[in-house]
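Help! Submission page says 'invalid entity' but I think these are all valid:
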Amino acid sequence: MHKNNNPILLKNIRVIDASQNLDQEMNIIVNNGIISYFENSKKNIPFNEKDFRSINCKDKILSPGIFDLRVYLNETNNENVSILKNAAVKSGVLKMGILPFQKPLLDNPIMIEHLIEKTNFNNDKFFYPYGGATKELKGNEIAELGLMAEVGAIGFTDAPNCIQDSLVMRRVMSYAKMLEKPILQNPEDKSLAGLTASNSTTIQGEMNEGEVSTRLGLVGIPSCAEVMIVERDLRLAELTGVHYHVSNVSTKETVEVIKRAKLNGIKITCDTSPPYFSLNELELSTYDTSFKLSPPLRNEEDRIAIQNAIFDNTIDVITSDHKPMSNDTKILPFTSASTGASGIETLLPLTLNLLNKLDVSIMNILKKITLNPSKLLKVEIPKIKSNEKANFIIFDPNEQYLINKNSLQTSPTPFHGRPVQGKNYMSMMNGEIVFDNLDLL
Amino acid sequence: MNKIHKINKTPPPIATLNSKNLLSIEGMNKLEINSILDRADYFADLDPLKIIKTLNGYVILNVFFENSTRTRVSFELAGRRLGAEVINISVDKSSIKKGESLLDTANTLSAMKPNLLIVRHPESGAPKLFSDYLNCSIVNAGDGRHEHPTQALLDALTIRRRLGRIEGLKIAICGDILNSRVARSNIHLLTTLGVEVRCIAPPTLMPKSLENLGVNCFNSLKDGINNVNAIMLLRLQSERMSGTESPSKREYYRFYGLDEEKLSMAHHDAVIMHPGPMNRGVEIASSLADNEDRSLIKTQVEIGVAIRMATIEAVYNAQK
């Protein structure tokens, strides 16, 4: 990946590092992977530019790499790991939380250890696995949370499953509290989210319940199936004192409940992902299965509520909820098609798109994909300052283009053909260039 | 039977469709619908032996992923009467589960270069998926809970032949609307043609926001059928009758089963329809089902062939 071995001089680059509350135009030199010069761009550079690979980065942004809170690897094999790594570094994601739902499940210490060993990258940790909260993610028995924490599990979740049983949830929470790890829940009351016939076969809900599901003849999931679980869990979080995290907030009601809980001082955080602040249920009207997501796309009122909750900081983190699926499981009638979509490659531009919709600072938006996830999981992200190893991304926040599914490495995307702005041009991890398109700037 | 109906001297033209597929009634306009009804009306009165076989060499595949005798036979007969070659393929669900994906199946069928695929599938939207990937025309013969367009067309023609018009009528649709593709197609068709549509169902079988489709919703059958000209009953699957969506058969029959007494609330010569197969003593009293003055259930089946002929012909024409 090295373009050349000369030290790199980044001129007039806007450095945004929320951890230091820094937003300044700087000149930076990276030499042998170390930030050797780091000064305000108004100062003259006391070196001869010819000795450097010098790039004028006016209006470009340098920020810590994205920490993607929730990503599905699907399977711990070399091919998947390498596809995900490549897609991630290209898109500016330098750390990610790996969800336990994969083959084999990450619900025991051996698999956690295996994943960490397998994915060690540039002597830096790139993948941070969660442990399954319950055995086989079935929601019945507590998994070996202590042993998994010992070998590096950063938190616990059954995602995409939701822990339905209140007693199991209470026990998992009290255990996680003892281990000082967060518990992540994908809230959805399963019995309410589908149709149950008397022969006890359950038909899973397929989309948000409302006029669109009625027109399409798809099984609806009422939006209250989400908030009901959150309300129950909040009681249990109060009882146990655990750090409770709600994944993929998608409804207006959930936002309101979380906002209230935060005011009441309950230890709660939450995230959402771009589909829920960018799209609504109308997208499904052609039965396009790339919009088949969990939770389902909601109505426009919900979408606006999610967007506003990002703005007022009720929502702490934006994550990709990356769950790539092959065409074999997606090009099917809607009911048979799998749930989920890729997201890691579109996380940065779709997040930056919020700047056009909300009166919010770019630092505040970047916080939600960098500093906040790292604080939530208590994983330190390296600071951008002199004499530190280079750990950052460089992106153009203004470049406009259309998302094209054919130029993405993972599929499917629900955002094909959508105009966005913001593109990553360089990723440096632990002093190494892992992605470099700076010459195209 | 007092048919208010005349045989046209000059046959109406082949029906016009704006698409080479018939996937749903939603999205069709009044002209398209009426052109199919007019043409089918003409076919319904024609001696099948006198029909000019205009579709010689046209290949139709009846691809049924779900069991259905009446609809399959109806399409088959319609195709054959027009001179087309109709091949029935019943795709066993288990063979799909053995590995071949739906799209592979579709591509295999497509390689045989059929002109038209008539698709029935248990999942909503499956015919749309076929139309996205195949070149031939697709006619939806019922998909999941979504639509059953030709059923709605034949229902409309049955009513028109009996009552002389459609516009301005009051029509009730009663039963398991939540799970019914027939209800959805009928709602779109009847509202498009200017009918006051009333949907009647227990709250557990009423889909959300149904009124946004331009209908009035009732939980009470008696209120809902007040002064209506026609009542369309829907089949209630037996697995929904024992404590899930409905407490019991007898409770359902008590409140939603159509009998003489409830029928007396409707217009004095209101007609009764049912897409079949019926559950006697659940959706309808047995005596009413057999009452030929009121029940159009048999006529619906007869008209079905004519509607499907008009549809196949229209699709053929739209392909040109």
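Support: the input was valid. A stray whitespace character was the problem, and the output above is from the cleaned input. Residues 224-240 of chain A form the longest helix (17 residues).
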